What we know:
Elements: H1 3-16, H2 24-47, E1 62-67, H3 74-81, E2 99-105, E3 108-114, H4 129-137, E4 141-147, H5 153-163, E5 175-179, E6 185-189, H6 198-207, E7 213-217, H7 223-231, E8 239-244, H8 251-257, E9 265-266, H9 275-285, E10 288-293, E11 306-309, H10 314-321, H11 323-327, E12 329-335, E13 344-346, E14 356-362
Parallel strand pairs: 1-3, 1-4, 4-8, 6-7, 8-9, 10-14
Antiparallel strand pairs: 2-3, 5-7, 10-11, 12-13, 12-14
Amino acid sequence: xxxxxxxxxxxxxxxxxxxxxxxxxxxxxxxxxxxxxxxxxxxxxxxxxxxxxxxxxxxxxxxxxxxxxxxxxxxxxxxxxxxxxxxxxxxxxxxxxxxxxxxxxxxxxxxxxxxxxxxxxxxxxxxxxxxxxxxxxxxxxxxxxxxxxxxxxxxxxxxxxxxxxxxxxxxxxxxxxxxxxxxxxxxxxxxxxxxxxxxxxxxxxxxxxxxxxxxxxxxxxxxxxxxxxxxxxxxxxxxxxxxxxxxxxxxxxxxxxxxxxxxxxxxxxxxxxxxxxxxxxxxxxxxxxxxxxxxxxxxxxxxxxxxxxxxxxxxxxxxxxxxxxxxxxxxxxxxxxxxxxxxxxxxxxxxxxxxxxxxxxxxx
Length: 364
């Protein structure tokens, strides 16, 4: 029996099993088996394509990837957003390689990739789908592009992304698993667990050959999320949804779609509709922060900020500038909203706000 058949067989068993307290641990065990089989399936599907994957070189301050079915207008959109020259054609599979472009916005350089259109079964290796989707795993933002007349493709794309280990718009569960040599499985939590109990937790973790561990839950997670934590190979990436070619439909059609896709951005790449608004939204979704550097005895350079991610610290900036700045860091002074008064002295772990002015003082 092949992997696909095994997965289907287990999925059928889950469907037939009534979910209740008595069966929940068994269902958890079955879900763990499915997850392991899917991982094995992905590894096997990529085995025959060694050396044929997409090689991408990241640059800029952040990376976004356009994901969608063939002929949804990704290439046209990339050309409108960036300086790229992606081939555009009114037929399927126009883009056969990954095309990068740079979108400049608010002093940030955002690299956007146009990847070949995915198809159903992409995660299983169809149409080089696994390699295409793997680009999304390492991106800072996934931009799903839908054809207005085919919004049902969203479910397929989300399923394919999940099947390669991407968790769009999900927060990484706060669960810590520390393997121990003996003592069995010990479970503690700081929140009420409404989806799991100790029997379910043990049955799932035992499926992965772990029989001694201390597990701490700081989030109320589902079976699937707990399995993700155990496997520790999932990618949690922000996502936004675009509805392209809206010039072909009326307002009533878009209003109806909102019942099924609550949050989407209507655009028309071909007619250049909402492109400026889209650039702003992409920038905001990436949570970028601009920091202006102030050398000693000189004015701050307010024309060319250093762009970093939200939550970055002073020492993170030092690392981005030069390793000697990290090695010889003494303290820093900041003017901006992250401090209580202008020129406040701060340490290496101080978190910076957008448009802070930073002066780094090094050891002599």
